[in-house]
């Protein structure tokens, strides 16, 4: 606060108070009494009288517009007059006539020569340097007229002559016009610079006068001593009853002399010519005079001016105040000056205290117990609006004290103790107010504490609308009581009533109170958050056995509560701008302390606690809440931008924790950004704030996008240095889709914006980290696609913009990750057909890699496409079929899950695989068709018959008839399709007799289709089974018994699990002969094709299978591709795992074991016999037919049978007939079904 100008005293005019002349060239004229010389006509005695004589104490008169002479009577307005005379009768302008003595003027007589002289002393042209008595020279007594102040312009050439004359007349003890001389000297020192003054008063060099002060100072001290003896001596001043009045003529001389002396002491150039002894005497004398009970009010101010500044050189201060003896006298004098009801004098005393705090902080801190409470109580006594100016000076004194003692713990402890204690008993009023003493006594009797009294006075001042003054005082006292346990103080709750009271008075008062909350912030956060750090350490890990974690937690909570007080004191919605700015300044002050260079350098571990307990709640409640309003939201966005700024922290030398106490608020560039690693570690909190901000409609999209960019650039510094992504990095990437969805879901964006987002992400993260898929393998164990929100946002763009975004992403990804992206894009409900078309075109141009992961992704892709797929699908199938290993081909095809594709795409694949040379592929295709038959029988059968899947039809014939028999609704359509297909195959020509025979026989047996039409299309000699069925139909009457027996045996076989018609004892011998004949015919056909002979046992299995189908026995179909996989597990090195899952007592069906054993023997027999079917041993056939059914052939275990089959070479296995292979596969299917059911 700027120094307060001392006001003009309001005291009544005295007769001795000097007044300046209106015109410096014209001095005041001395007036004399005029005698009334009129003769008495009635013989009365004529006596002298002074008509209308104005008894003004001051001889200095205002300038009159008319030309006056020293003897001319001047009539002025009547005012209060005082007569200073030994015979004081009345203070009226004139007194009644008295006969005892003539009336005498209070003014001293003037010499006749001086009255007749019309020369003006201010007219320097009349000055004569000679010492002639008749000349005008300052050295002459007559030069100094009463009440005439000599005033020369600055730098006048007559100044040396005037100063020399002044010193000359002052040195003469008989000279009586000292007031005018000192007044003239004061005019000189005020109007001239120090360089001129040094020439005028210090003519000799400094080193020549080290032992003596300036002659002027010596003369002043001499005059002050002499005059004050008469002023303070009651014996010499008997006319004045008041001990503090004094002779006004002498007082005014001392006043002018003290002013001159004060100027010399305050001028650093002049005071160096004053000895330390004289300065010490001046201060000591001033202290003594101030505490003198007879001191005049007019002398208090100049003495206070002398002791308040102490503008001395450093060496002089060190010499004078090193022992603090003089300082104690100075402080004692200021505190014990006799009080006068004068605002100016109280102001001077307060300025003295303020200057002492600034100039002698150690001394004032040591003696705060002596001056703090008197100062505070006197300020509380000045709450009246008339004393606002004086109160402002006192509050400024407290603020300076708070500033000087920010780190002084003894001062803080003393102030806090006093604020929590009763009011002291010995406090002197600065104004000698009786009411003050009575009020203090009453408060002491009521045991009122000082803090409570101050709070009530501050509230009173706030009611008087002096909000700033009250909060200034509140802030100063808050800082002066800044102990470590400030938040635990007993009077804190009462102390916070002051700002709370302002909060209830409207926005202006609220804003002012919030601006002073920085004092509380400083108290709790000073010394680099030492109190907070100590609490956090004790909460996290007790330092010693005596520490109580619960107490530390309570302390930490207490400090946090105080910090959050202003944000919890009133609703934060619909706040006016002035209040929002004030709260923003408070929060920026918090951040300024929390992010100090020392914290960021040495104690970053505490930053998380500050963020979680203070910063994050403020963001959530104040900045990012929708009800906070657009302005607060905008400020929050700017703060987050600042915290994410990529820059180095400010150096420690630029940081000052007391900066938050400055009146000008902290701006954003002064706040250090957050550490990059901290942003990464606390990314969840950062994202919470960003998501909240992205959801606000009051923030522009460009601001949101800029915030995202700042956030990613901030963490880039850490992510790029990681050798491998950390767990935190992975967690952050997992949450990026949510962040992008909140950003891009608010409004439509252009492709340029999406490209910017992609580029920023690629600049921070490797693109391959931003996408993944859970495929149940290493590195592919979770579903993640950061690009998906970007692709979703691009769905509203034109095709060109969409493809720009998608191509940019695909080009940056490896092939597998690109396939994951394509899969996710195709699965989006918003994906349009044109997007799918372009993606398929891109896939058609890429190289197909037939690895497990890619094939799984291709399978997902093909599930979603339905048009223009031919090139891509063909390229994919070709890449798989080109694998040399047939087992690997089937495994790769299995990964595609073709049966789950859309029907047209799956049909296309089946057509591509139809003519594949590999038998494994045929089995795979059969498996797919089998599942499709179960799902859609008619459609799948129509597809098979239309595209002539002959091999697959043969493999699936048994399962096909089973499904047709079950589906009664589709029976007619299926019969039509099969009949048409049989006609097609018969008309086609070729060697598919076996397929035609099996299908025709099955249609006759199971579907009751009349197949006699085939006799016109094909030679029945090639169709033994069909021929038998036709003959059975023709000889129905002759075979009735056989059919009944067959029906009975079929029912028994249904309960046992197998049927054997050939071994039935009731079978008609003619029928058996027919079968044998048919078998021979078939054997002849096969012989012509170099096939293996169909022995009786093989034919028996065919009949058994067909009979089983006829009875509609329910069987479960197993996909051929799955069977192949299971066979691998049994035959290959995974045999041990299969054994652990299969019970050692589990046996293959007896017939299957017999078939294998018989086939084994047959293979060896066929190998040894090279003569073909002509050398067939009929005895062997009879041996098979005469086997005793009661004697069961020992069953082979599953493991034994697998070993038996695995040991056979491919050449030996090829010796099986197609019927035997099919029967073997069927039995294996049944076994695998049973095995799966066990699981």
From TrEMBL:
Region (Disordered): 1-78, 1160-1189
Sequence ranges of Polar residues compositional bias: 13-26, 55-74, 1160-1177
Compositional bias annotation for Basic residues: 1-12, 28-37
Domain Telomere-associated protein Rif1 N-terminal residue range list: 214-528
Protein keywords: Cell cycle, Chromosome, Nucleus, Telomere
PANTHER family (alphabetical): TELOMERE-ASSOCIATED PROTEIN RIF1
UniProt protein name: Rap1-interacting factor 1 N terminal family protein
Source organism of the structure: Candida parapsilosis (Yeast)
